[in-house]
Design brief:
Blueprint: H1 7-43, H2 49-78
Helix pairs in contact: 1-2
Length: 83
Amino acid sequence: MERERSDWDRMVKNLQWAIAGVFVLFVGGLIIWIIHLIRTAWWLGDVPSASIGISLVAIPVFLVLLGVVLYVFWGLLTHQREE
């Protein structure tokens, strides 16, 4: 028999969804910002090597971190056990 969820349980679950959503927006904004840096360097005729070097490291790192965070939150949100 399934127990009713309390207001606290609903608030925690909504907070977890919000944290996951904010992190997705953060990583998306970071990737867009790095792409903007590369385009701006190219547009100014500057050498975009620093922007490309940063993007080659930062984008995969943040995508992996996003995957880990979403995996953890997905597990927390979909496989909650009754206590």
